Structure formats: C-alpha cells, structure tokens
Amino acid sequence: MIYPKGIKKGDTIGIVAPSGPFRAATLGEIENALNDLGYNVKFGESCYGSYKGYLSSEDKIRAKDIEDMFLDKTVDGIICLRGGYGTPRILDLIDYDIIKNNPKFFVGFSDITGLHIAFNKYTDLVTFHGPMAGTSHKWDEFTYNSLINALNNNLNKFENPNDEPIYTVVKGQCEGELIGGNLALI
To answer: Which residues of 148-184 are buried (b: 16+ CB within 10 A; e: fewer)?
Structure first.
C-alpha cells in the first residue's frame, strides 16, 4: 500500500467535485474556513460547474480535474467538495498511473466511494473516507482533529466523540484490511 504524506499548516488543499454540483455554501466560505485552519486552497474547474442538474461538470472535466490535482506539484492533498452521484461515470476516464506516480491524500465519502475503490485497486493508494470540503465551514473540533490525525497516520485507535458510546453487535475481536464506503456503490 502507498501511504500518502500527511498534512501540515501552510499546505495547499486541492478541491474537486467529482460528483454533484455544489449548492450548500459559497466557495468563498469554504476557502475562508480552510484558510482559517491554516491551509491554502485551490479549486478545480469542476467546483464551479453544474451539468444536467445532477453533475458538477461533464464527465471528462471531472476526470481531468482529479488527474490535474494529482499532477499539480503545488497541491499537497485533495478533498472532494461533495458527494451526490456521478463517480461511476468517470472511473474508466481516469489515468490511474498519474495517481500512482503522484500519491497524495484523497478524502471524501458517499459517492466518492467509487473513487476510493478504484484508487485502491489500480494504484494501491491509501485513501480516506472522511469529511467533504463543502462542510469545512461547519467542522467541529472532533471532526477536524480526527481528519488531521488520520491524514498524518496518528491513529492508534478509532474513537467516537465522548457523548457517542461505542458498542458492538457481536462480541469478539477481528483483524484485517478494512475497505468500505457507500454500500450502494460497492
């Protein structure tokens, strides 16, 4: 497995929208929130678009945006703007050698599961099922710290917030590789 380098203050986060168009806040609010946390931001072309009402941009633009962020030497890692629908449409358009040869952290959830699975299969890159950039202006301390710890490989164990108890359905222990995500896409 390829573990991407972590993140530090002053790094540049590339933001892409490989699924649906963004509607929740302004890109300025997202940029300000990430700047306030100490990071620079670079938005991909797909972040500005809307195509057919349910996609951020045409398939070729969304695939190229991902490749461009992995190729961009000024970008230290990538967080998806939002989920929605659309990643299965671009999986055969991505040049996975670009990603394998330019490993960076990659974060998202929901429809982004399609990309996580493809990156795992074709590039051996460790990716992160985590918060979207589109909600960065609402991240609480637990969310932010959990993300940064995961990206910097500082997790000895996963913990829930203090007011969320951990429980198991079946008692016991297990060990192995964890691959998951949105079951509708898996």
So the answer is: eebbeeeeeeeeeeeeeeeeeeeeeeeeeeeeebbee
pTM of the full predicted structure?
0.90
Residue 158: per-residue pLDDT:
65
Domains contained in the chain, CATH given: 12-151 (3.40.50.10740)
Opening angle at CA 59, ends 128 and 47, nearest 5: 60
pLDDT digits (tens, 9 = 90+) for 1-11: 999 999 999 99
The residue type at 32 = N
Helix (H, G, I), strand (E, B) or coil at 70: helix
Measured CA to CA in angstroms, residue 149 lies from 18, 47, 132, 168, 182 at distances of 25, 26, 16, 24, 22
